[in-house]
Amino acid sequence: MDASIRERQPGAGGLDPATPLFDAIPPALAGLRIALVHDWLTGMRGGEKCLEVLCRAFPKALLYTLIHRKGSTSPAIESMAIRTSPLQRAPGVFRYYRQLLPLMPAAAATWRLKNVDLVVSLSHCVAKSVRVPAGVPHVCYCFTPMRYAWQGRDAYLESWSDRPIKRAVARSLLNRLQDWDRSTATRVSHFVAISETIRDRIAGSYHRESAIIPPPVDTAYYHPVPTTPREDFYLVVSALVPYKRVDQAVAACRRSGRRLIVIGAGPDRARLEAAAGPGTTFLGWQSDEAIRDHYRRCRALLFPGEEDFGIVPVEALGCGSPVIALRRGGAAETVPDACGRLYDAPTADALAAAIDAWEVEGRPHDPAFARAQAETFALPVFRRRLLGLLADVAASKDRHAGVPRPHIAAPGVAGRRRRDG
């Protein structure tokens, strides 16, 4: 999913402890010994919002991860029985853990899962590689196949273009990572993708089919206030890094003299500010409250990047905001034309033309339809879909042979066994 542009404080956002659990656990999951696996726990971003739902559903599950920065996630996650890898003991690991990618497969191999009936991994790196006991179903909720090994490979190698020796070493490393990533996909019995985009990547990288369950968006928080008027500025909410293409939104608005507000932080900020016109304002990091307020007031959200899913456009739709987005990645699946405008070419000219055409047509937009579209990604919907799929897997007659379930019995049977024993 798209990188976080603002991490909520632990306990803020996501599921409030007072929030009802929406639906009961499906009967097929009751009594199962469940293990959850997540790449790392260092903040409360989109992936952790998905994990939080499972932690609330299965508070007695064991949770395996490479590293855990205590206090960095929500109370529901922090309260779990968390098992880490040897990387947890590396000095200063929370500052440079992303640089330890070559060591992560070996670290993940140290996870030892025993006495479980169902394993659920949430993976964009190594979590899906976990070894499970023979016959135990393993459902992988896949944010994307390992990015550096696949779709991010060429860009990474290009960054070493002026250092041929290091580039050759990096290519060899990425070749091994790609082979490893593909081979460990056989440890997954059921893949679940976050979008059609990721479903296609799973098919291309692993040659596997997958179901699609989009990640949750907190539509209870991101909701419209009908009395709030729309103002004359366009909005970008994004991490300020090159692949987000914020420079295209800046250029499109500078050329036409339109007002633009940019919310977000990142290493690209200085370059973007130098290229911006006087009508562009950079606000840096902002709270969720401020972001929600800008969603409600902007003329439209501009989304020029290509994301695996893209939570920001759906948050904006939840607030009734129009969205003008590149017709690629997750936004092509989540933003209907009735909610703004999609454009085809990833250029500033194409974005500017889309804004022009939308304005000439009178800025067509249906706020109620936008809100209804966002609600299809609400937290309760995500929970029902994911737990329903897990229940189907657990109850399937096509389960792998040999799944040990001696502790699960029909009602009354376990009691008779105890008395007879």
UniProtKB/TrEMBL annotation:
Keywords: Glycosyltransferase, Transferase. Residues 230-359 form the Glycosyl transferase family domain. It is an enzyme of class 2 (transferase). One of its GO terms (molecular function) is glycosyltransferase activity. The keyword Membrane does not apply. It comes from the Bacteria. Residues 402-421 are annotated as: Disordered. Its EC number is 2.4.-.-. Residues 46-220 form the Glycosyltransferase subfamily 4-like N-terminal domain. PANTHER family: SULFOQUINOVOSYL TRANSFERASE SQD2 (PTHR45947:SF3). This is Glycosyltransferase.
